[in-house]
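7-carboxy-7-deazaguanine synthase, Kitasatospora purpeofusca. Tokens?
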Amino acid sequence: MSLSGGDAGAGKGLLVAECFGPTFQGEGPSAGQQSLFVRFSRCNLHCPGCDTPQTWDWSRFNPREVSTRHSIEDLAAWVMARTPRLVVVTGGEPLLQQSQLVGLVQLLSGRRMEVETNGTVVPQPELIESVAAFNVSPKLEAFAGPRDRRIVPEALSAFAACGRARFKFVVREAAQLDEVASLVKRFSLPEVWIMPEGTSSEAVLGGMRGLADEVLERGWNLTPRLHTLLWEDERGR
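Tokens:
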């Protein structure tokens, strides 16, 4: 379900690509839980394999057609009219709008709030105090755009130290797990989850089977893309 209304050209409010749910959180430690999603528009990375290019790729999408601007009060009202207790703020990169995101999270203090981020923007103390968890997904070299600053040491260090972050890496093949291990060691990352790359159930299942044994050997966690297993690449699920 989409949130209607708003003005992408206005100067106030949050830029939103879509709101949908109830559905299930598809990834990481909260996978399978009923949830609502608020997807912010705009991103500071340009990953060729991104599954939400409508949040940033203006060579393919018109930003006025794929994003709208909404007040935190309107977004909070949309959430509060629905029953799931888990609310996932995703993107794009939500922390590009974190000053207003803090206000939204504080308005929804009765819900469990998870923020999904690429880990390149240092979180504000007020946001750390207000969310239940950060789902941090640093991008590996083969996934990110060639000129992207995909690893920002001060940001990853802040997330690792905040006590509310879980780290999820999208992996295409087992050989990339050495790169993950290097980042885990360099930044002392806790609670590591590995997720196969793929936008079809066949690709996700095949990726999990190819990664499972080595992920176990390294002592990490393996997550599916549950929404992909259930609904393939359908938007808003």
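The mean pLDDT is 94.
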